[in-house]
Amino acid sequence: MNDLVPELDNFQQKIDDEQRIEPKDWMPEKYRLNLIRQMSQHAHSEVIGMQPEGNWISSAPSLYRKIVLLSKVQDEAGHGLYLYSATETLGITRAEMNARLQSGESKYASIFNYPSLTWADVGAIGWLVDGAAIVNQVSLQRTSYGPYARAMIRICKEESFHQRQGYDIMVKLAEGSPAQREMAQDAINRWWWPSLMMFGPHDSDSVNSQQSMKWKIKRQSNDELRQKFVDQTVQQCEILKLELPDPDLRWNEERQHYDFGEIDWDEFYQVIKGNGHCNRDRIKHHVKAHKEGAWVREAMTAYAGKKAQRKDAA
Ligand code: FAQ
Prior knowledge:
By secondary structure, this protein is mainly alpha-helical. It has helices at residues 5-16, 29-48, 50-54, 63-88, 94-103, 119-140, 146-174, 178-197, 209-214, 222-240, 265-275, 279-292, 294-313, and strands spanning 250-252, 257-259. Helix 4 packs antiparallel against helix 7 (146-174), helix 6 packs antiparallel against helix 7 and helix 6 (119-140) packs antiparallel against helix 10 (222-240). Phenylacetyl coenzyme A binds next to helix 2, helix 6 and helix 9.
């Protein structure tokens, strides 16, 4: 008889009773490792996600747009920090997580391997990418691990501002000159399908879902969340009088949802294997920034040491 069976039963009971699991509570090793996987990948996505938009800070079309974008990109850094801190409560260090990201062992969201070619891409990222991220993250506010759920509540508040700033850019472009409308349409054409891929493979191909749903790490499936995103976004696009690039997109009266075309899963798997447009550049940039920031980490460690010494001496 396995000694852990009563512990496992208690653990599952807590989850079934909607109680949160906290860092010092007993948890199965697989629960801990699965959370480290998902949460660290989530944190990496926030940090790597700064790159496509960060490139546009110096080229934003007005001072107002520059200030807003700067603030949005800073928020993403903050989200990365909350999520890395929450993940550290599971017994892994930030340095280990960074090493896994830089070696390719740990993934980040596929979407950030696409280039941001025009200013309209900044609008499309805010509207579609943050929009997709919110749908997923609202659901994660009820995830079973306490520190992750609490981080999500704060992150969602900020993400909804991000989504609106993106949509605001799209509205302005859609109301603008023919060239501006064309630029907005081109951005939608390039970002729509990768946004749908953000929700991960179909439920039938999702290797982690079954266990993650049982432990309520995930509360809704990849396909359910993707459908929710499609349903809400179609109407937003209609207001812009622009088009989503999917000839199969239509309202299904019986299902009370939009039907949509099949995602190019070969492209998705190529991107998550490291063969997307920007995978190599994204990691190269991260390695460079990490090296250049070494002096800041050293200075902070030295300062913390001095403060501790002073406290001991007092
Ligand atoms: N990209 O078995 P599943 C943001 C991998 S935050 C790359 O279904 P799971 C903010 C998956 O890891 C966006 N890899 O996996 C922002 C697994 O491989 P593994 C990030 C993906 O975990 C906005 C394999 O495929 N949000 O955007 C992707 O049950 C704008 C099989 O998949 C989160 O991370 C993908 N899209 O479900 C920042 C939310 N999809 O790990 C700047 C938290 C799947 O076994 C600008 N994460 N894979 O080697 C989740 O909810 C889940 O992890 C899913 C995937 C739904 C992403």
